[in-house]
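INTERNAL AUDIT FORM
Audit reference: QA-55
Scope: verify that the stored structure record matches its stored sequence.
Auditor: D.O.
Record contents follow.
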Amino acid sequence: MKSKNWRLAIDGAEPTVKTKLPPPTLGGLRIGDDEEEAVLKVLRNKRLFRYYGAIGGVESQVDNFEKLLSTSLGVKYALGVNSGTSALSCAMTAMGVGPGDEVIIPAYAWVSSAASVVRVGAVPILAEIDDTFCLDPKDLEEKRSQYTKMIMPVHMCGASCDMESIVNFAKKFNLMVLEDAAQALGASYKGAALGSIGDAGILSFQWNKMITSGEGGAVVTNSQKIYERSLLYHDVLGAFREGGDLQIDEIPFGNAYRMSEIQGAILNVQMRRVEGIRSDLRTHKRLLLEQINPVLEKNGIKQRRYNDPTGDTATDIFLTFQEQDCERIPFIAKALFHERVPVNTFSNDLHVYDTWVPLFFKTAWTKNGGPWLHHPREINYSPSMCPKTLQLMSSTIKIPLSPDMSIEQREQVGLAINKVLDVAL
């Protein structure tokens, strides 16, 4: 390869990627006849609501999905809800998190991770990430206080946090661990499914996730107490529906976070697609990296470090540039875009804490609300409070992968990356 001799699309050449790539929507693009038939079956049976329907004796699709999910993850309990954000609220409430408590979350996560902590009346405490782009266990001691009740590791982009270090730290200080595995169905850590390692975990089935029903989420746990409390909280009439020995006058009102039967029916089919999607992603990522590694090594570009490389779902490629090359990132991103290669630069990305404006101003729905007002210690936030995270994000680009791109498209993506990097650096 002769450096600098390429002509790029940004300069008027034809794009290297000849046809538009499929979007990285994973399970969404694989919706087919089986999902359609599953939805039609629900409509024909007229049982759209989990707890009862127009025709008796029809099994619940949500019940079936919960059993399938719990078996797949190796946990005792799974509860389907209407979104991943709702799942976070359910799980934290079930685990007793509320006013006066602090929850440590990473500074790189979807904004719901912070918002859900505020929603249950607790205070989010931001911790740095490391070069795994997940929570840095080394920052936990710095961020822990006497009010810390929970650590929320977020498994970003289908790869695991350092769960061994996090769980050991939590045990040392008697803290709970809630895994946010919204982006990590099908991923694992040392053989254990993500979401199954902490005291509880959550998953999301929103459109961009590994499998999807458009919206949807789940709480998973091995704790009967956490499961039962989640069950009660996710349904305002949960205590009445379950009956048994529950003391109704001792149970507070729940919410309306139920999963619909149509969502359950779609997800029952989508669960069968996880292995194929993951396999295709891993193949594309492995072969693409083989194609671009010489150029990466030549320019000192680092890839994401993995706490367990074998458990990665391979949804993305992270490329971190040397300090002297960071000023070239805007050009690289623009040039890749012109070559028809999707790329994220994390500028104004709602996954990065410096965009979480309500947090900086501690904004609540009323002036007398918000978890900070009566918190036992003063907590302040600023856009510069996690400098290690900001430095890492500012020197990194992320290239999302689609399991449905063709071999030819993948090879064209690799050639485009090689051309742009060779010219830019």
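Auditor finding: record pair retrieved intact. The domain at 33-273 is CATH 3.40.640.10 (Aspartate Aminotransferase; domain 2).
Action required: none
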